[in-house]
Design a protein that fits this description.
The complex is a heterodimer of chains A (about 400) and B (about 375). Chain A is about 35% helix and about 15% strand. With about 400 residues, chain A is α/β, with parallel strands linked by helices. An eight-stranded mixed sheet of chain A has the order 7-4-15-13-14-12-10-11, sandwiched between helices. A three-stranded antiparallel sheet of chain A has the order 1-2-3. In chain A, strands 5-6 form a two-stranded antiparallel sheet. Chain A is globular. Mean pLDDT of chain A is about 85; it is low at about 380-390. Chain B folds into two domains: about 1-90, no CATH class; about 95-335, no CATH class. Helix content of chain B is about 70%, strand content about 0%. Chain B is built from 17 helices and no strands. The radius of gyration of chain B is 23 Å and the shape is globular. Chain B starts with a helix and ends in a 10-residue tail after the last helix. In chain B, about 35% of the residues are buried. The chains are: A alpha/beta (about 400), B mainly alpha (about 375). At the A-B interface, helix 1, helix 3, helix 4, strand 1 and helix 9 of A face helix 6, helix 14 and helix 17 of B.
């Protein structure tokens, strides 16, 4: 066999390899769609049935591109392995740094506070969000007129510029200055990075069990119920897997993790509905998940839903509406245990939320707005799809 | 057609600004690849007029030439004369198909592995709202990243187009020939976007009289060509500035600098050309004139930032060092040189085929990773 023949055979093998790769991609079109990705905390894009209208608009092609990368064989493993390999390289320069509390930008939105292992979001400026806040203020002022309204401000990391040691956006002062009518307001006291680290996760944008319990106590004082504060029964640590929060996952820092602790409480019996259907109550005997990257914040405290209703059958107590975001999840049931019926509404998921009608028809006496930075600076209602939040 | 779709808004905006008027502007959507296929059609019409090619009476074949998808949106600009014969009579052989596949993978690798990663650096820094705070070193790093990004992006697309062409039996002409190894700007433009520069030479410069005329006329001819070259790249003042920047450099080179350059060592000549090319890309990249001047100020005043702080802010720059090295290697014909060193065709084919399959695998990995997008309510 001469060299020319050998080269031709090698090239034939090469073309076969190329065709196999293309074939795998083609097969992806016909394989059953994969389940949601836990690591990405989202449902994977599925390949749509071809549709002429979508094709002419280009939607079909866009979807096909995203779906192919999502559904390609071993795509989830490929993502995890390559991100971890990159993280390994990251650690080399990171480990030899002088600690000066700098922001080490991980991407456009997330930064690591140098040498602390705390991932935060980059600071907001009031100009970026003023329009959104003013939109929210319109119905907040309605709340003040409709019921006895309480605001509890939770400063998320976007409120701070930890590098300069100043507040980037003081939502609490902004609300106090601009809210009209009669209302009550308090905030979670976070004055510096040390406070932030005490109350919030290192790898997730949410508050941890310490922060949430502090919030619960502050809210009880705000509601004039400080004598009724429920004591912690025990603190449980999930041992099966370390918690890799959404900030870490979003910024591709999969090697960063922390312990997930939660408190248990003695609660009276209650009934609960989720989006109008009977639901299981929060499982305080939770013992862990079998998979890595489980979103424990969502699993233990329940995910975001348009509406949860807690009924503690306390006819002597009032009804309250918690105007909520995911920050309220750890304390919804605790607050609810001091009331008759508690309506937790997450307006991001609630289509066409008519709050006037809702307050009236549910006989709501009090409104608690859990005004975390993202709630008062976000675009507002109907921005999410219930099924998207795992 | 090109004026309406591409330059109308630019013209109206400038007329409004100049005459303090307020003409309303229609939202004209720019068809993808319009600059490329307009020039292809023009070349066909002009060549028919000049009698260089015959009129194509078969609408399918003419349509195939105009809308040939491999090079429709990103070039190269294929002249009708190049593929006139191939449109009607072309052969698809296994060898040609294999060459096409290999060329396509090289282009895909250039785009996905190098250009996209260089874009991460260039975009992060050059799109930042506080570019004025960056030290000159950080600006230079981002500029170098952009220099590599634009070459590997554009030449990658050209490679993919040429490769696809081969697969379908066409032979398109080369569009890039290692432009960053040039020792002068004149040489750079012989190696960069060859199909465009030869188009302007054949259809604008020579019809205007080329260099066979009085010096003033010759300078005017050069000016027109580079003004149009700038405008072809986009309807914005920075592109015009970019075109005129090259007009001035090429004029100086042709008038006297070329003779001086020839006396310098090769390394100095390369540095001269590469620095000017980089400056050119900064003008090309930054549409806002104020930002452009700020960046020039940072560079030429050697703005001293806190280098440690800059790196801390952008520590992930270090992750991109391998891509910079790969880009630097790929900018020179090193792999071609290695290929020539290997005398055994069988070993050469095994190594190159394995390397290409690895590149293909890496491209898939990079593409899959690009869809990593955790769901989070974030600044909603």
């Amino acid at each position: 066999m001469n060299n020319i023949t050998k080269v031709k055979i090698i090239d034939k093998i090469f073309i076969m390899g190329f065709i196999i790769v293309l074939g795998i991609g083609f097969m992806t079109l016909f394989l059953p769609a994969k389940a949601p990705s836990v690591i990405e905390n989202r449902g994977l894009n599925k390949i749509d049935f071809p549709d002429i209208k979508a094709f002419l608009k280009g939607d079909f092609q866009d979807n096909l591109e995203v779906a192919l990368t999502d559904q390609f064989i071993l795509s989830r493993t490929i993502k995890e392995v390559t991100i971890k390999a990159t993280n390994f390289i990251d650690y080399l320069p990171m480990s030899s740094r002088v600690c000066q509390n700098h922001y080490v930008y991980l991407d456009s939105y997330f930064a690591l506070i140098d040498c602390t292992d705390t991932i935060v979001e980059t600071p907001l400026s009031i100009n970026e969000v003023k329009e959104n806040i003013d939109n929210h203020l319109a119905y907040y002022n309605d709340f003040n007129a409709l019921a006895d309204t309480y605001y509890y401000f939770i400063p998320r990391s976007t409120s701070f510029d930890f590098e300069k040691g100043v507040m980037a956006f003081d939502g609490y002062e902004y609300l106090k200055k601009t809210l009209k009518g009669k209302y009550h307001i308090a905030q979670l006291e976070v004055n510096d990075l040390a406070d932030y680290q005490k109350y919030f996760f290192k790898t997730d944008h949410h508050w941890n069990n310490v922060g949430a319990y502090q919030g619960y106590q502050d809210i009880m004082k705000l509601l004039g119920k400080e004598d009724e504060i429920r004591p912690i029964l025990s603190e449980v640590t999930i041992k099966k897997n370390a918690f890799v929060g959404l900030s870490a996952r979003s910024s591709k820092q999969l090697r960063r993790s922390e312990k997930f602790n939660y408190y248990t409480f003695n609660l009276p019996k209650f009934y609960m509905t989720e989006n109008g259907f009977p639901s299981e109550s929060v499982d305080y005997n939770y013992q862990g998940e079998d998979y890595k990257y489980a979103n424990y914040y969502s699993i233990i405290y329940d995910g975001d839903r348009a509406e949860f209703v807690y009924d503690f059958k306390n006819p002597d107590e009032e009804n309250i509406m918690i105007f909520a975001s995911s920050y309220s999840n750890p304390i919804n049931v605790l607050i609810a245990s001091h009331f008759n019926k508690t309506y937790v509404v997450d307006a991001r998921h609630y289509p066409d939320f008519d709050y006037k009608e809702y307050i009236k028809s549910n006989d709501i006496d009090k409104i608690l707005v859990l005004a975390s930075t993202d709630v008062i600076t976000g675009e507002g209602f109907n921005i999410g799809d219930d099924e998207d939040a795992l | 057609m090109l004026v309406i779709f591409k330059y109308f808004n630019f013209l109206i905006n400038n007329i409004n600004a100049l005459l303090n008027l307020n003409f309303s502007i229609k939202n004209i959507i720019l068809p993808i690849g319009i600059s490329f296929y307009t020039f292809q059609i023009l070349s066909y019409v002009i060549d028919v007029y000049r009698g260089k090619v015959k009129v194509q009476k078969n609408i399918i074949l003419l349509g195939t030439y105009i809308a040939l998808f491999p090079q429709l949106i990103a070039g190269p600009i294929v002249r009708y004369s190049t593929i006139e014969e191939q449109l009607a009579h072309r052969t698809i052989t296994f060898d040609k198909f294999t060459i096409g596949v290999k060329r396509f993978i090289i282009g895909l690798g250039k785009k996905i592995i190098i250009a996209n990663n260089m874009a991460m650096i260039a975009d992060t820094i050059l799109n930042s709202n506080n570019v004025s705070e960056y030290s000159f070193i950080i600006v230079l790093i981002s500029l170098l990243a952009y220099t590599f990004q634009i070459y590997f992006d554009f030449s990658g697309y050209s490679d993919m187009a040429i490769g696809l062409g081969h697969m379908f039996g066409f032979d398109f002409l080369e569009n890039f020939d290692y432009p960053y190894k040039s020792l002068s700007i004149t040489e750079f433009w012989r190696r960069w976007h060859i199909s465009l520069s030869t188009w302007f030479k054949d259809y604008v410069y020579i019809p205007l009289g080329g260099n066979r005329c009085k010096k003033v006329r010759w300078i005017f001819n050069l000016f027109v060509v580079w003004l149009l070259t700038g405008l072809w790249h986009g309807a914005s003042w920075n592109f015009i500035l970019w075109g005129l920047y090259y007009f001035i450099i090429l004029l100086i080179e042709k008038l006297f600098l070329h003779k001086l350059l020839d006396k310098l060592p090769k390394l100095l000549r390369w540095m001269y050309a590469f620095i000017l090319i980089n400056i050119g890309w900064l003008i090309f990249r930054i549409e806002d004139i104020n930002t452009l001047f700020t960046l020039f100020k940072n560079i030429f005043t050697f703005k001293q930032g806190n280098f440690y702080l800059d790196l801390a802010h952008n520590y992930y720059l270090l992750n991109y060092v391998p891509y910079f090295l790969l880009a630097a290697l790929g900018s020179f014909p090193i792999f071609k040189w290695l290929g020539r060193k290997l005398k055994n065709d069988v070993v050469k084919t095994i190594l190159s085929d394995m390397a290409l399959l690895i590149v293909l695998g890496l491209c898939i990995v990079f593409l899959i990773n690009s869809s990593y997008n955790p769901f989070i309510y974030f600044r909603f």
